[in-house]
Amino acid sequence: MTNEWCGWREATQRALYGPDEGFYTRPGGPGPAGHFRTSVHASPLYAGAVATLLCRVDAALGHPGELALVDVGAGRGELLTGVLAALPGEVAARLRPYAVERAARPEGLDARIRWRRELPAPGSVTGLLFANEWLDNVPVEVVETDTDGVPRRVLVRADGTERLGEPVDGADAEWLRRWWAPPARDAAGGTAASPGLRAEIGRPRDEAWAQAVGTLRAGLAVAADYAHERGDRPPFGTLTGFRDGREVPPVPDGSCDITAHVALDACAGPSAERLTQREALHALGVDGRRPPLALAATDPSGYVRALSAAGAAAELTDPGGLGGFGWLLEPVGTACAGLLR
Questions:
Q1: 323 and 278 Cβ atoms separated by less than 8 Å
Q2: Which of 323, 140, 146, 169 is nearest to 238 (CA)?
Q3: Cα–Cα distance measured from residue 143 to residue 155, given in angstroms and rounded to the nearest whole number
Q4: pLDDT digits (tens, 9 = 90+) for 246-259
Q5: Would you state the pLDDT for residue 51?
Q6: How far, CA to CA in Å, does 80 sit from each of 30, 34, 51?
Q7: What pTM was estimated for this model as a whole?
Q8: Which region holds residue 263: left if phi is over 0, alpha if psi is between -120 and 50, else beta?
Q9: What average pLDDT is seen over the chain?
Q10: Backbone dihedral region of 163: left (phi > 0), alpha (psi from -120 to 50 degrees) or beta?
């Protein structure tokens, strides 16, 4: 790893995806599940919900002869494996599952899953594209206001040391003006000098999402991620690291995950719909209500199973946790609009 100064976008790209040394691409690594818990890892109910959504997409498209499921940021293929197990046989027989992931294909993965380092070609697939906690790992520049309140690019070295660079300009400055919270105003109505405020420039994520949506000929694209809205951006940004299940400082040396919450409102196209994960999963039948106690008397084993499922559903839909994630649904064509209403 080089220890020269560079922007966070370049440093993160190298730290996460560098050949042979990146956090996600290092041979023999445990994958995301070894360091943090996503909805996919929390319960098979999540894969079941995605399978339900895929069936709705299939029906809306008129049951095409070849139905695609593109899992972007596929980890070790856990979501696709779970969806294949949950699908009705007739749908599974027509399914073409694609895993898009920078890491090498894991051993023992279902042979039906096509492993790719890049997205399919534009307009080449029909079905569902699903990106679970992918956009938060698309590297972005970090900016911080100086003593005069001027946003400057944050430069970083591989050991995590930072300093301020040049003022933000061009397309990044325009994105910041449009999508991040406006600067505070002083009592006289002028712009207040607020040093130390930070933001992440989400423009690369907007572009990455547009490219992902563009792979669909027809169907639905879904992104599920940590998210915030323009009116409620965090004043000091969200850049952080994860290692071995714990939050750690974001050091771009390949030793930890580096992530930041996503401005999904900036990514959204004109026909997109945004929901919380709680709302989306409820619409797909994931319900955290406890089973009736009377079931314990008539079917004790069934009661225990239902209670366990309710607990898992409650975790996935907890508004203070995974249920607070944002879901961005973007239909391609009119057939798949409003599938969660």
A1: yes
A2: 140
A3: 9
A4: 899 999 999 999 99
A5: 98
A6: 17, 18, 9
A7: 0.91
A8: beta
A9: 90
A10: beta
